[in-house]
Specification:
There is one protein chain. By secondary structure, the protein is α/β, with parallel strands linked by helices. The protein has two domains: 273 residues, Purple Acid Phosphatase, chain A, domain 2 (4-Layer Sandwich); 66 residues. Helices cover 28% and strands 23% of the residues.
Length: 389
Amino acid sequence: MKFLHTSDWHIGKILKGRNRLDEQAAALSEMTQIALGNEVDAVLIAGDIYEHSAPSADAQKLVVRTLMQLARRNIEVVVIAGNHDHGATFEAYKPLMGVAGIHVYGQARPADKGGVLTFRAKSTNEPVNVAVLPFLSRRYAVRAAEIIANTPSQNVGAYDQLVRDVLGGLTAAFTPDAVNIVMAHLTCTGGAFGGGERAAQSIMEYHVPAAIFPVEAHYVALGHLHRRQRIPAACPVHYSGSPYPVDFGEQDNSHVVCLVEAAPGTPAQVMDVPVTAGRRLRTVEGTVAGLIADRAAYGEDYLRLVVTQPAYAGLRDDLTEALPNALEIRIHPEHASSGAKAGMAVDRPAMTPAQLFTDYCHSVGVSDARIVDLFNELHDDLTRSTAHP
């Protein structure tokens, strides 16, 4: 059987004030044509369908229209919630989407209560089992382990062990005569970041070793990290990456969907199919005069400009007037000593909220790991979008 693996659409993402819904629509249209042209049996979308937990009506229309177009062609469409999505809303629409032939999962559940989707591939009539694991916040991972694996939370502290227990309960339903697939939204230890992820829900306790995935899995379809990559493991573990550059940190990534062929007892074969829709993101350096002189070379690319001269009043206006696709303007650190003016950003390494809070604690003479843990838990509650039952 054949299926398409994709993730991290982030529909509704606005980049530096620029609405990109038309680009996102073009990318989804291209992916749909790839699925139809290759006559796939299923499309697996491994989380972060939307950029926001409360997406706009236009963003929802685009996603629903795309999913319906696939389902009408007798393709099994499987969608799980990522950390940007609102899991409870996914669950609310699950019965209605199910009528349309679209399988939506907002929360983890036991295998015998829908945590493993079983169907027969239309092209080969082979049985297929898909173990689905939407994004788990640290707190909900405890509850999920109790529900699915009957693991007492007081005996299990590590996030990776909780996820291991949940997956163990789900993959116990795998059968030797079927194509067995794991689908999850999480961070694998050693995975490379793509550049546009939400760091607070990707680092610290939020990572698991690839060894948690069972050798019986023909394929593990992951979402969350935006860089296309395979993680070394006993079974094929793949991130499809984002299908278009979500932010400037992804400007050099390869944007693809994964076309996978698998059969019972046969290792999965994976082919990357490029997705070309959407504007390129580009970072360019130079003086104001040099940047403006090269404008013909930029085409329709969205630009992040790094200015290699001291700032002056009116610098931003000069650049944006000549380069209307310049979405971000920075002063190179070597030229920032005179002060960044006119709203210019000084190019310096980004710090996570946890790092900033830790630095603050040190500055006021506080050294207590419990306070940092409480901050991390509070930040998780405020930024995660997967609701707890």
